[in-house]
Amino acid sequence: MPTYLYHCTNCEHELEKFQSIKAEPCKKCPNCHKNTLKRVLTGGAGIIFKGSGFYITDYKKKSSASKPPEKKTGDTSKSNTTKDKDSNKK
Q1: Residue 24's domain is classified under what CATH number?
Q2: Closest by Cα among 15, 12, 32, 49 to 4
Q3: Number of domains forming the structure of the chain
Q4: pTM (predicted TM-score)
Q5: What is the pLDDT of residues 47-61, one digit of tens each?
Q6: CA distances (Å), 36 to each of 5, 13, 15, 28, 42, in order?
Q7: In a domain? residue 67
């Protein structure tokens, strides 16, 4: 539920009211008790994510620099045999 800002055109009183989007706007000023209260359009606070699971890094693009290096298999017998064959040819 959003918080709305109200301004009285009679006495210049301002107030914030926490109400549903579907609720009718307030009309009566709590200060001067006249029906001169108007809802003021504001920029708002934007979207605020609360709770676990909302992190800035969740939706960032993965850069190639942050990838872990590929694991080497450790099986060097194939490369050694080709080197040995090449060295025997010379």
Answers
A1: 2.20.28.10
A2: 15
A3: 1
A4: 0.48
A5: 666 666 666 666 666
A6: 14, 10, 13, 6, 19
A7: no
